């Protein structure tokens, strides 16, 4: 029997770190119902759906590790992104735009049975502006007899239309050959792959908590915040910002400054954008506006960061706006709403006045040190041995579940695997996590513990 369970910080495998061999990031875009998800599943060999089975992980996957003919690449899947959004034309373009910004090359999917539509043309215009290489897939060409359907799409001006049937796999190999050829030659601008000596930071929080104010404060200049969407696809996505004399790579600052949330489909896109930024970051600065009540959306963003397995610093912004009564209200909130992240550091500051912004860097370094940390196997086992001797697991059906052996399987964030003779109940797992934290630190980082049962 094998029992895998997570204590804190569920996270998934893809997206965080890119295998050394991945040649680039390929996004699959197109209007709804053309068959993007079907195509992505076909390319991934349906591995994708399985990864989502972790309880408590309820969010959209953004990127996957994929492989074709010996070439490893990242696949950005936008199928399903529009699921929550009511058919707003412009939001389709937004969705595609986010995907394209994250990618080095693009597969544009159109529907051969339906023919060319105004939405297809809208997406094509955006793709042209992005300057990224595009391979055109005409889907739902399920048989040789329907090949003629593809020819019409030469008119889109995106080069040769590749006719495919995502459903049956027809033509998908040729499409991938062409797309990967372009991807290999493409300029790598996605940032997903950029190896950088700088630590990668995502500034996240619901709209109006002060993300762009804090970014401007840290960058030491007041930049124009608002840009219109058109023509901004080439904005720098990431920015190097010095905090306390050290350079950090702030991820997706264009998204922060551009205020996508003012557009339709607002909350949904900010969630998506947050997810994309988290995937590429190592550390999340989660901002809260303490002059307002803490909302579900605030807590959701925080959970996104923890579930993504990122190091976390909680930033309580707009401290300047609090009076004594307000400060008491905040402390009550702290005691009640933040029990999921008692391990995280909290920095009270004011982006507006700059008060305490000099405290950020230290908290950021501490969190990343914890996130990077490795506990040697010998130390870990002697610690767990002592812990078990002092507080054995309660009897279950007359038997005493025992820990046999443990090891830290990985870091970033720290992930432990414990081998035990029987099921370890929830309370005992919490106790192990608390004790590990007390003994070894891990301030500012989620940790994950899986238990494997060996009879
Ligand atoms: P998405 O919204 O672009 O992700 O589209 P989906 O992958 O969800 O597919 C939309 C619909 O088109 C579904 O009913 C699919 O079964 C269907 N579909 C997808 N690929 C093909 C194909 O190659 N041939 C045919 N005939 N139908 C397909
Ligand atoms: P974003 O949507 O998260 O990027 O938030 P903004 O940076 O645009 O800030 C939203 C509003 O909050 C603006 O009116 C800011 O001037 C204001 N604001 C940001 N930081 C502070 C702060 O520390 N104190 C106060 N009083 N207002 C702030």
Automatic annotation (TrEMBL):
<keyword id="KW-0690">Ribosome biogenesis</keyword>
<dbReference type="GO" id="GO:0005524">
    <property type="term" value="F:ATP binding"/>
</dbReference>
<keyword id="KW-0342">GTP-binding</keyword>
<comment type="similarity">
    <text>Belongs to the TRAFAC class TrmE-Era-EngA-EngB-Septin-like GTPase superfamily. EngA (Der) GTPase family.</text>
</comment>
<feature type="binding site">
    <location>
        <begin position="30"/>
        <end position="37"/>
    </location>
    <ligand>
        <name>GTP 1</name>
    </ligand>
</feature>
<feature type="binding site">
    <location>
        <begin position="77"/>
        <end position="81"/>
    </location>
    <ligand>
        <name>GTP 1</name>
    </ligand>
</feature>
<feature type="binding site">
    <location>
        <begin position="139"/>
        <end position="142"/>
    </location>
    <ligand>
        <name>GTP 1</name>
    </ligand>
</feature>
<comment type="similarity">
    <text>Belongs to the cytidylate kinase family. Type 1 subfamily.</text>
</comment>
<comment type="function">
    <text>GTPase that plays an essential role in the late steps of ribosome biogenesis.</text>
</comment>
<keyword id="KW-0808">Transferase</keyword>
<keyword id="KW-0418">Kinase</keyword>
<dbReference type="GO" id="GO:0043022">
    <property type="term" value="F:ribosome binding"/>
</dbReference>
<dbReference type="GO" id="GO:0005737">
    <property type="term" value="C:cytoplasm"/>
</dbReference>
<keyword id="KW-0547">Nucleotide-binding</keyword>
<feature type="binding site">
    <location>
        <begin position="317"/>
        <end position="320"/>
    </location>
    <ligand>
        <name>GTP 2</name>
    </ligand>
</feature>
<feature type="domain" description="EngA-type G">
    <location>
        <begin position="199"/>
        <end position="372"/>
    </location>
</feature>
<comment type="subunit">
    <text>Associates with the 50S ribosomal subunit.</text>
</comment>
<dbReference type="GO" id="GO:0006220">
    <property type="term" value="P:pyrimidine nucleotide metabolic process"/>
</dbReference>
<feature type="domain" description="EngA-type G">
    <location>
        <begin position="24"/>
        <end position="187"/>
    </location>
</feature>
<dbReference type="GO" id="GO:0036431">
    <property type="term" value="F:dCMP kinase activity"/>
</dbReference>
<feature type="binding site">
    <location>
        <begin position="252"/>
        <end position="256"/>
    </location>
    <ligand>
        <name>GTP 2</name>
    </ligand>
</feature>
<protein>
    <recommendedName>
        <fullName>Multifunctional fusion protein</fullName>
        <ecNumber>2.7.4.25</ecNumber>
    </recommendedName>
</protein>
<feature type="binding site">
    <location>
        <begin position="205"/>
        <end position="212"/>
    </location>
    <ligand>
        <name>GTP 2</name>
    </ligand>
</feature>
<dbReference type="GO" id="GO:0042254">
    <property type="term" value="P:ribosome biogenesis"/>
</dbReference>
<dbReference type="GO" id="GO:0036430">
    <property type="term" value="F:CMP kinase activity"/>
</dbReference>
<keyword id="KW-0677">Repeat</keyword>
<keyword id="KW-0067">ATP-binding</keyword>
<keyword id="KW-0963">Cytoplasm</keyword>
<dbReference type="GO" id="GO:0005525">
    <property type="term" value="F:GTP binding"/>
</dbReference>
């Amino acid at each position: 029997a094998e029992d895998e369970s997570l204590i804190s910080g569920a996270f998934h495998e893809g997206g965080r770190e890119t295998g050394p061999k991945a040649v680039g990031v390929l996004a699959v875009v197109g209007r709804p119902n053309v068959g993007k998800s079907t195509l992505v599943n076909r390319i991934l060999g349906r591995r994708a759906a399985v990864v989502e089975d972790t309880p408590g992980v309820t969010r959209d996957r953004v990127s996957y590790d994929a492989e074709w003919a010996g070439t490893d690449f990242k696949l950005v899947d936008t199928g399903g992104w529009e699921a929550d959004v009511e058919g707003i034309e412009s939001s389709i373009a937004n969705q595609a735009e986010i995907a394209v910004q994250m990618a080095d090359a693009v597969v544009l999917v159109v529907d051969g049975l339906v023919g060319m539509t105004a939405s297809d043309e809208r997406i094509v215009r955006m793709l042209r502006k992005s300057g990224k290489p595009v391979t055109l897939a005409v889907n739902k060409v399920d048989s040789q007899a329907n090949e003629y359907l593809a020819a019409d799409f030469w008119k889109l001006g995106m080069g040769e239309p590749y006719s495919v049937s995502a459903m049956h796999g027809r033509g998908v190999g040729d499409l991938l050959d062409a797309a990967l050829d372009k991807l290999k030659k493409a300029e790598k601008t996605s940032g997903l792959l950029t190896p950088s000596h700088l630590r990668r930071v995502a500034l996240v929080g619901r709209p109006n908590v002060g993300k762009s104010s804090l970014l401007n404060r840290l960058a030491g200049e007041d930049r124009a915040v608002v840009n219109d969407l058109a023509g901004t696809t080439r904005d720098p996505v990431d920015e190097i910002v010095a905090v306390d004399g050290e350079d950090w790579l702030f991820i997706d600052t264009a998204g922060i400054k551009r205020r996508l949330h003012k557009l339709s489909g607002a909350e949904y896109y900010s969630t998506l954008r947050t997810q994309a930024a988290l995937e590429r970051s190592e550390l999340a600065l989660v901002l809260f506006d303490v002059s307002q009540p803490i909302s579900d959306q605030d807590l959701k963003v925080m959970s996104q960061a923890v579930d993504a397995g990122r190091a976390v610093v909680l930033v309580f912004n707009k401290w300047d706006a609090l009076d004594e009564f307000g400060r008491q209200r905040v402390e009550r909130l702290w005691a009640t709403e933040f029990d999921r992240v008692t391990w995280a550091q909290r920095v009270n500051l004011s982006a507006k006045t700059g008060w305490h912004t000099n405290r950020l860097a230290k908290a950021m370094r501490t969190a990343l040190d914890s996130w990077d940390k490795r506990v040697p196997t010998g130390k870990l086992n002697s610690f767990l041995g002592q812990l078990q001797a002092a507080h054995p697991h309660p009897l279950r059906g007359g038997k005493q579940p025992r820990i046999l052996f443990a090891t830290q399987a990985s870091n970033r964030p720290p992930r432990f695997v414990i081998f035990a003779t029987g099921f370890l109940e929830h309370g005992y797992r919490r106790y192990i996590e608390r004790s590990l934290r007390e003994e070894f630190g891990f301030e500012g980082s989620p940790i994950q513990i899986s238990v494997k049962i060996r009879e």
